[in-house]
User: Fold these one by one.
Assistant:
Number 1:
Amino acid sequence: GDSVTQMEGPVTLSEEAFLTINCTYTATGYPSLFWYVQYPGEGLQLLLKATKADDKGSNKGFEATYRKETTSFHLEKGSVQVSDSAVYFCASAGGNFNKFYFGSGTKLNVKP
Amino acid sequence: NAGVTQTPKFQVLKTGQSMTLQCAQDMNHEYMSWYRQDPGMGLRLIHYSVGAGITDQGEVPNGYNVSRSTTEDFPLRLLSAAPSQTSVYFCASSYTDNQPQHFGDGTRLSIL
């Protein structure tokens, strides 16, 4: 069945460091891919999305490219800020099933 | 613009009690779903609905019932609460299963 796997956390970085959070997916069809962010005590918010191969989603300095050949959707940011500290979830949707699949989440801590 | 509204925000139950978690959206979304979020496990899909009158099971449906009598509302019922159901519950909605989901702020449920 469909699934999403993302790197274990927590990830601890200093401010202005480069961020990569790995995400890979398995799907029987051609899913759309998403990154969500969850700040403490809040619900999930959509960060970016990509709906087909080679699409690049971007928002607030974050980017992720839909790589069909490697079934990956890694999240990157060139220079993180303390305010980026949160839990990040990779997700897939569509394909052959009417369901969303979420990764287990990666907690990011950014220190000043 | 309310988005997805969940009530209550917090609830404590005793084992064996029943209750209903409410979820309402005002965006005319067809697709609605319930997730539970447990530490280290990300989000797991409980039940989902692709439109009024249609519901289906997700990954962890046991112990929960849902109904979808209107497009706006998607309540989640716990029939006989168990400590294993202590979790944070999120309701989400989207236009279709292949579009970004909008999340409510969550209901933190404790079963004693």
Note: The CA atoms of residues 18 and 79 of chain B lie 5 Å apart.
Number 2:
Amino acid sequence: DAKTTQPNSMESNEEEPVHLPCNHSTISGTDYIHWYRQLPSQGPEYVIHGLTSNVNNRMASLAIAEDRKSSTLILHRATLRDAAVYYCILRDTTSGTYKYIFGTGTRLKVLA
Amino acid sequence: EPEVTQTPSHQVTQMGQEVILRCVPISNHLYFYWYRQILGQKVEFLVSFYNNEISEKSEIFDDQFSVERPDGSNFTLKIRSTKLEDSAMYFCASSARTGIKVEAFFGQGTRLTVV
């Protein structure tokens, strides 16, 4: 089952930064933290992933706590198009396929 | 930008009929997956496929389901005798290699409605 905990929902104003938290207290030393998002009626979309250091890409930033038991996805300026369900995922390492185990995610609502 | 494409986008079928959902993974990707999402529920893993064989399958992936890579580009999911509870969004995904830090890319999904 999902090894991460996220708030069910969050709201943000358009053009404001958004910080989406994720707890993963049972994370192991080799687990990478992956973030995906799912826009309405679409497939999951890769956002970012990281191991220990903070990561940036064109979509978002990922801040990882020093003890790695939590992380935060940062959208620097939310737009209406960022309204989606955001999933924080640790890959399943019990088999060689490293499949994703999705939780319920955080539903982000962006207010105009 | 390369993407995973799925066809059809929506399929309606009678209960008991066979359906084939099609996917074209990203070129040069070697690992392929099917996931499904029943309306309002979580995205669930069905099966992974590598080197022309199933590498892992979930409890959902029973004898009614099969996967195939019939040629160098397509990856298909077949449901032999559909049931009402098979109604869901089915997502195909692919990745270039496997590993804990490798991202997978998902298609837009096929909405299967069994009536």
Note: Chain A has a mean pLDDT of 92.
